[in-house]
Amino acid sequence: MAEVVKMPKMSDTMTEGVMAKWHVKVGDKIKSGDVMAEVETDKATMDLESYWDGIVLYIGVEEGKAVPVDAVIAVVGKEGEDYKAVLEAEGGAAKPADAPAAKTEEAPAAESKTEAPAGGAALSDADIEKMGVTVVRMPLLSDTMTEGVIAEWHKKVGDKVKDDDILADVETDKATMEVMGYAEGTLLHIGVEKGQAAKVNGIIAIVGPEGTDISGILSQGDAPAKAVSDKKSDAPVAEKAAESAPEEKEAVAADGGRVKASPLAKKIAKEKGIDLSQVSGSADGGRIIKKDIENFKPAAAAPAASTSAAPAEKAPAALPAYVGEEKFTEKPVTQMRKVIAKRLSESLFTAPHFYLTMSIDMDGAIAARNKMNEIAPVKISFNDLVLKAVAIALKQHPNVNSSWLGDKIRYNEHVNIGVAVAVEDGLLVPVVRFADGKSLSRISAEVKDFAQRAKAKKLQPSDWEGSTFTISNLGMFGIDEFTAIINPPDACILAVGGISQVPVVKNGAVVPGNVMKVTLSCDHRVVDGATGSAFLQTVKSLLEEPVRLLI
């Protein structure tokens, strides 16, 4: 009978895996123990082995695709065996392989669906354009905006509207803005009364030929929100002059009156350094619009300006304009980054964190480390000394070596310390087990091995599971101090900074000293301030007198 191969759960935090590479294809003969594929989990890339002998009858996932845990990814059986019954018994979980056929069969149905709206009341954008109608929607004017309030309507239903006419003032969460229709015709519909709020991309007005039936447009409702761009159709808005009144003077015409200009014309004139008072407007009432600015010729506007100017006066030096370009690159989130985001967000927003910082005199630790490395089989680092001191301190303070389990607290009697290791895609936390009973040389060797295997993505689930406390050290990057987010289910994490040479007071005299700052992040549901402080006092005493680490 054919056997179904499902995506295994390769770690306690894994919810899906990415099929990094298939080592077999449909029709290949495999044996138990053969590697079928490589799967990228949230921790590492791992081999997926076959537990059956037979022929690969079906592969349901393409390389590079993500698959939920327990989803069908392949079927192994005898040559020529019918595997479809097995897939149906699994609830059709692995239908991706049949997708091409399904698509061709469903194509006619899809076509009939797309044709359906044509017979109904809804209208497409092309239909609306043929009608000569422009739908004015509430624009998305900022990344935090969800709705806008109509502060004032400058037109009413039945009024004639021209290009660049301001239809309304809209109050957003940032400022009051002017909304223009960028259309010519009659204002056929006002969807939101003055003082009322409209959702982003809700219909606020419709402009078109007089007498046009707009019932089909109104029946479509609101469209999905779109961010404002610099395109005319997407951004018929400009900030009101009132927002920048302290910085910008209003343009005044030659006869002393106010210059009437559209916001777009004002913006272009400002960019080109054109005085609006010298421009003649072609719109109603002498209003200046975009084409007036584009057609303006400064030389013709003021031929006598240069001759009347005093020789002693010099025009201010013009600074060269710099035009930047906004660019970005987007990449899919990796499995590791997904889990980091999920778990640390849950930790920070679920566990009530508080932080305790302490300075430790490292003069004794520096001298002891130099002596140890003269005879140690492997080089001992300051991080190894910290890890050993923490392990001993945890045995003396079991409340810190604990976990919050909702309706109970688990007090761990063993000491398993997770060591945060930075890798290309994020962060891994391999675990040094029973660290309190291991020598410094043994701890150093294990941490170095974990770091090498983590960077090569060769760690196994057993390497990162089961921590009771975590250490994160950024001292090698020149960081003096920082706070870390607790790594669930641990109750605490220790953030270790670098060793700094600073003046210290010893025996009443100021002398050079070597000081390291550590910060303990605590889950207040489990650890109180006094408990965390006592733990740090013990760590401090052990590092300031390293001989105690050997007892």
The beta-strand count equals 27
Strand fraction:
25-35%
Q: How much is the radius of gyration in Å?
A: 35 Å
Percent in helix = 25-40%
- CATH-level-4 superfamily name of the largest domain: Chloramphenicol acetyltransferase-like domain
What is the CATH fold-level name of the largest domain?
Chloramphenicol Acetyltransferase
Give the biggest beta sheet. Answer: 6 strands, mixed
The helix tally amounts to: 14
Structural shape: extended
Low-confidence runs (pLDDT<50, min 5 residues)? Answer: 93-121, 224-250, 300-310
| Average pLDDT | 81
End-to-end distance, in Å?
A: 62 Å
Number of domains: 3
Return the structural class.
alpha+beta
Second rung of CATH, namely the architecture of the largest domain = 2-Layer Sandwich
Instruction: Please list the strands of the largest sheet in the order they lie side by side.
Output: 18-27-26-25-21-24
Catalytic activity: N(6)-[(R)-dihydrolipoyl]-L-lysyl-[protein] + acetyl-CoA = N(6)-[(R)-S(8)-acetyldihydrolipoyl]-L-lysyl-[protein] + CoA
Enzyme class: transferase
Biased composition (Basic and acidic residues): 240-252
GO molecular function: dihydrolipoyllysine-residue acetyltransferase activity
If you had to describe this structure to a student in words, what would you say it looks like?
The structure is a single chain. Mean pLDDT is about 80; it is low at about 95-120, about 225-250 and about 300-310. The chain is α+β, with helices and mostly antiparallel strands. The chain has 14 helices and 27 strands. The protein has 3 domains: about 5-90, RNA polymerase II/Efflux pump adaptor protein, barrel-sandwich hybrid domain (OB fold (Dihydrolipoamide Acetyltransferase, E2P)); about 125-215, RNA polymerase II/Efflux pump adaptor protein, barrel-sandwich hybrid domain (OB fold (Dihydrolipoamide Acetyltransferase, E2P)); about 335-550, Chloramphenicol acetyltransferase-like domain (Chloramphenicol Acetyltransferase). β19 (about 400-405) and β20 form a beta hairpin. The strands form 7 sheets. The chain has a 6-stranded mixed beta sheet. A 5-stranded antiparallel beta sheet has the order 15-10-12-13-17, with no helix packed on it. The chain has a 4-stranded antiparallel beta sheet with strand order 1-8-6-3, with no helix packed on it. One of its GO terms (cellular component) is pyruvate dehydrogenase complex.
